[in-house]
Amino acid sequence: MGLAATRKLLRLGMHVIIVGNEREEGEAAVKQLDAENSSSGGKIEFVYLDLTSFKSIRAFVHDFKQRRLPLHVLINNAGAMLVPERRTEDGFEFHFGLNYLSHFLLTNLLLDVMKASGKRGREARVVNTASATHYAGVMDMDDLNRRSCYSPTGRTLSRSWPWCCSRITSRSSCRPEASTSR
After folding, report:
1. Residues 6 or more apart whose Cβ sits within 8 Å of residue 61
2. How many of the other CB atoms lie within 10 Å of CB of 172?
3. Do the beta carbons of residue 95 and residue 137 sit within 8 Å?
4. Which of 121, 130, 133 is nearest to 75 (CA)?
5. Are 19 and 46 spatial neighbours (Cβ–Cβ below 8 Å)?
6. From 176's CA, which of 28, 41, 118, 134 has a CA 20 to 30 Å away?
7. How far is 73 from 110, CA to CA, in rounded Å?
8. C-alpha distances in angstroms, 107 versus 80, 82, 144?
């Protein structure tokens, strides 16, 4: 989904920054997309960002703001699924930290840039990608980090599957009129 969206944005002549924690994969994607869209007028670059680290997110935002680039579209597309139990650098359950908290922090730290980049009738946009797995989960507000029972595959507590719950939180952070259910 990320590559398809990037292709479209490049064809529209936009400057696209893709981020990720796999440098080789990111640079290979940039090379491929740049070759495919060499005549579009769009520009693409890769910037390293570890979305499982609040420190890395804050450093990325700081560096981005230093560049004084406009930000018209932010697409939160990163996600992990079926990861064995582990914690992010900041101590959060991995699915919850990567699939929700990182997008929430990144978006909120960039809102001022987005507001300044938009115009009346041409406002900047945030796009949060997700799947329908939020229907299968139930949030346990007393155990968001899944410390009492963890099952990345859902075998033990299928309705508490961390991926599903991270998708519930992503969906709940969207404005109802801006999200769709299918």
Report:
1. 106, 109, 110
2. 12
3. no
4. 130
5. yes
6. 118
7. 11
8. 18, 25, 21
User: What tens digit of pLDDT does each residue of 70-122 get?
Assistant: 999 999 986 666 666 778 899 988 888 888 889 999 999 999 999 999 988 88
Residues 57 and 49 sit within 8 Å (Cβ to Cβ):
yes
Tokens at 123, concatenated: 């406002």
Residue 170 pLDDT level (bands cut at 50, 70, 90): very low
d(CA 168, CA 87): 19
Q: Are residues 107 and 70 in contact, defined by beta-carbon separation less than 8 angstroms?
A: no
Q: Encoding tokens for residue 58?
A: 């804050």
- Does the global pTM surpass 0.85? no
CATH of 49-132, one of 1.10.10.10, 2.60.120.260, 3.40.50.720, 3.90.1300.10: 3.40.50.720
Chain-centre distance of CA 129, in angstroms? 7
Identify whether the C-beta of residue 18 lies closer than 8 Å to the C-beta of residue 26. yes
Domain ranges within the chain, ordered by starting residue:
49-132
